[in-house]
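Example record

Each entry pairs one chain with its bound ligand, pyridoxal-5'-phosphate.
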Amino acid sequence: MNNTSQSVLANSFPAQPEPTARIETQHRRIVTELPAPATVKRLADAARVFPRVNCYQPPIIWDRAEGYQVFDETGNCWIDFSSTAVMTNTGHGHPEIREALRRHVDEGLLAQFSFASDIRVQLAEKLLAVSPPGCEKVYFWTVGSEAIECAFRLVCEWGLRSDPVKRHVLTFVGDYHGWTLGAHQLSGNDAQKPWLPNADDGIHHLSFPRLTAQTADYTDADWRDCFDKQIQQLADDGVSSTEIAAVFIETFQGWGALPLPVAFVQRMREWADEQGVLLVFDEVQTGFGRTGKWFAHEHYGVRADLICVGKGVTSTLPLAAVLGPAEILDVLTPAEITTTHAAHPLSCAAALANLRILEEEQLISEAARKGKIAREELEALRARFPKHISEISGTGLLFAIHVSDPSTGEPRVELAREWTWAAVKQGVMLFQVNRSTLKVVPPLVIPDDALVEGIHALGDALETIA
Ligand SMILES: Cc1ncc(COP(=O)(O)O)c(C=O)c1O
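Structure tokens for the complex follow.
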């Protein structure tokens, strides 16, 4: 059997309890060895019944979670810096979402397929009300990968109808757009799919325009030029701009919380308008206040043609959507695609409550404000460990700590993993990214002092392994 698909994460965390320092503060409580001895058997059961592809997160059995904290049943409690993969924007199990779900269970529909219902119409209207101008329709799905898959189909059909040569789609090396076939091909890079011999030859990956120490002195003109050169290279390789239907953009590249340079995106927008190309912003991770704005592409000051959303739209149950103008969302004819569970009524109830909470508790401006505190604390952490931390990136409450090998300065996945586990032992819940980063993405409701305490605890954790 060849090993090409084997995860580098195999056996990444200890299966047996390790000595763990006792911690008790207002926000964290670690009172057992970790993994907690009482959970070891069930962790082993999980490893037996789940495929190993699922078994790569820290060995903690989550029992309940509230607001910004996660609890196990053995008395431990963590400050959550994961938001369960950047999802629980309004916090875990917000009482108003629980109440909306309870009410809906007692009074409402529990299944509906593609029939209309009041709650689904209400949610679509609410989403359009908070979306940028130009969004006229909402195409509902269940998970983010499906929203991307749908946007991919829409832009390809739209391209074909506007001009049959428009069959090419661009994206960026290192983007993540999901796991389904189209989304997977848009993700990563051209060479990463050895299992997929007939990859779509109409998908092309541009280099990601990364803001680094080397590009720090680039002017806006340099970034515009950087975009134009890539488009020229594509043309030299036989794909002219008139043959391109769309560009998919992960609005902040998720693994590293990396923004694109504003001037680069603005030049891309101009070019798209000149050439009749659609810009699709993947806001599955960055939407609904995560970066301190409703949608992260607002940081670039450009218009989106399509917006894909998921995760933080409900902060709880599965729901995703493509938002955009009728001209594009209506390219498919009735029943050309059907799906059973999209916009499940319970997910709609959760989403409506979630959007109300975002507004009522002003969590979007709160994310921007707390992001400034987090940035300051994370930069102080970097100053404390300059050899282990090469960069802090992100904004709002979407941050990544870039981890490097202290002796070579190179990115170091193994150290990020070790640090992740050491942080969990310090009472800060992280998820493993499988890259050389730690993601700091707490629920937007986190109190300021818990945010600061959690970042200090990351430093204490690194101290134990550095
Ligand atoms: C930017 C982005 N796009 C798409 C997806 C896929 O969403 P889902 O996991 O709900 O299929 C993710 C998930 O992490 C994501 O971060």
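The chain is about 35% helix and 15% strand.
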